[in-house]
Amino acid sequence: MRYHWAKELLQSWLKDHSLQEEPLYRSSGRLVDWAGMAASPLYADMIGEIREEAERLLDLPEPELTEELYERFEKTGNRLAYEGKYFERRRRLASFALMSLLDADKPAYMQALIGTIEAVLEEPTWCLPAHMRGQQIDRNIDLFSAETGFALSEIIVLLGSRLPERLRESMLGHIDRRLFVPYLSYGPYGWETAEHNWAAVCAGSIGAAALLVEQSAARKAAILVKTVETMNHYLAGFGEDGACLEGPGYWNYGFGYFVYFADLLNRATDGNADLFALDKVKAVSLFQQRCYLAGDRPANFSDALPHVSVHIGLSDYLADRFGEVEHPPLKLRAAYTDDHCARFAPALRNVLWFRPEARREANWKPGSWYLPDAQWFISRSVSSAGSFGFAAKGGSNDEPHNHIDVGHFILLSGDDPAVAADLGSGEYTADYFGEGRYTYDCNGAQGHSLPIVSGHPQQVGGASKARMPEAVTGERQDHFSLELADCYPSESGLQSLKRSFVLLKDEKSTLTVNDNFLFGESGGQVTEVIVTRCQPSLAEDGRIVLAGGQHMVELTYEAGLFRPAIVERPFVNHFGHEETYYRIHLIAEHSAKRSQQFALHFEFK
């Protein structure tokens, strides 16, 4: 099923409805009581974070976005220099706008907000330099230009006449010139048919902005027709299992903007245009509670971070709409400053959509799930000994934010360093998204727990994929297996590689990884690889100890099978900070055998 509403039909639904503050930002059927929320102990932590940040920013000057910083990306590939200042300005925009609503009696917030809005309007482009690359400065639309226009639109609606009329008119003119005109006249943009977060964020922001501030019903309807079509493409990027291949951080991001737009559209059309009607949307809504292994630690495949907090507003909104969606544990709520991009739309809804009265568990409920379209297997268990999480993936080596990781797995407990780790996303640079992508350990096969076969790692590409997945979940034991031979080049001599995982969920979990290799007549050489954040030490032949925190883990295998080697490796994380991890190489001693079977046992102690 695809959503489609003709322009004329949308226009007829829109003509009798106006998205002003009263119908748009209601809470439980009443107008938003900003002062009441600010005074309520139920919101104290959340609003305290916003106030603390706004007070800090009041003492700082407006950050300068210079031409030299802008050009540094093209000259060096460095994104952080310009983006740091750019996002600091967006943080000022969000903080001062929210505090102008929550504490209207303090004029310093409004004065600072006006200054920041004026600075944003003076920017030659709202796009990041990494997203320009040959585009015309007055015609390109990227994630952050769309988000900026959406934020300014909401600020206009929420603050209304409290903003100087001249400034409101200027904001409207910039939103029109930078978003609406190019969207209607200069496309199509690549993200209009994308099946990942760009589609939802860019189109959703533009469509939401049009619902909020575009005065022409015909023009508004024209924008909405395009936006809804792009949302069809975005949803096509999900299987019926609802898994987000980009990970939970990008679920927060892309699906969040889908929901923000869908909510506004639903309200503006009095429920006639309902993007939540598809079963797939409910499945995507359930992904969050299925993808976590323990606490704030998800199955962070692809460019996902090892720790991801929940957007409490988005989560509570979805839980209110779909009964099977859980209100998440409150301790996992993202703090106001957690979003280094300082996006206004989620920050606003974390306040407006938060349900302090909702029933919540202290931790995620235990369970096991197989997501067949993504070929992800996820299991989390809880006992008196602690919480334990396991995840493994099939899929292909040609996915959104792709890593070479088919057959890779994660094993962890509580807050301890991951026993079998996924490094997540590295620092985004030009080369990270260019020809050098797989030289980064975060992205390449070398940074994942995958065998090296006759000297060959897994290959990149859509043909490099898992086959014949089998998954069985149970109360005490889970089983997941995959055929991985297609992931290796023919030069490896590999005819079959069946990798299977057996997870025993006792008081403390035990994982066994079985790899069965079949080669051609000349045989092949195998090196098993384990990527870990625990410091490993060789205890004796057939036993390696992985030092955690609360738990120690023993990695055992048949003595005499392997020659072990441990390599400590540096990598740069998403925020530009250097970290280390360990790569355990288990080099098979009996090479050139046609059939080889290996079992690796991980036992928490």
Automatic annotation (TrEMBL):
InterPro entries: Chondroitin_lyas. This is Heparinase II/III family protein.
